[in-house]
Amino acid sequence: MITGFFPGRIRLRSPIFKNQAIADRAISILTQFPPVTFTEHTPSTGSILVKYDVAQLPTENLQRLLPFFKKLEKAADTYSGNDNQLIFDMLDEFESCLKKLADA
User: Fold this and answer.
1) Handedness of CA 54, 96, 77, 40 (dihedral sign)
2) What is the DSSP letter of 63?
């Protein structure tokens, strides 16, 4: 799921992001999170690039999201294209996680 990381830049890659509706929802959530400065979606590879302001989101705070991403990765590994609602429910959870992180 997280295929690339260095402070200020994260690349997410998964078959779930080849689904445009899922990718759009994920990007919508990410762009509402103040530290995020840029997103780019590549549907053919199922990749989302996220750039963020490190001053607003230190790595130690970002690490709080790892349990969620591990859970999403597990769901994505079994994704068949027929279980979109599960992924959308998980993205709702992601949005909640980001709101908590922003309030911290």
Assistant:
1) negative
2) G
Per-residue pLDDT tens, the chain, 104 aa: give them. 899 999 999 999 999 999 999 999 999 999 999 999 999 999 999 999 999 999 999 999 999 999 999 999 999 988 888 889 999 999 999 999 999 988 87
According to DSSP, the residues that pair with 41 across neighbouring strands are 48
φ, ψ for residue 80, nearest 5 deg: -115, -5
- Look up residue 75 and give its amino acid: A
How far, in Å, CA of 35 to CA of 89, rounded?
23
Q: E strands of 1-104, at which residues?
A: 2-6, 9-13, 36-42, 47-52
Closest by Cα among 3, 2, 98 to 57:
98
7 Cβ contact partners less than 8 Å away, ≥ 6 residues apart: 54, 59
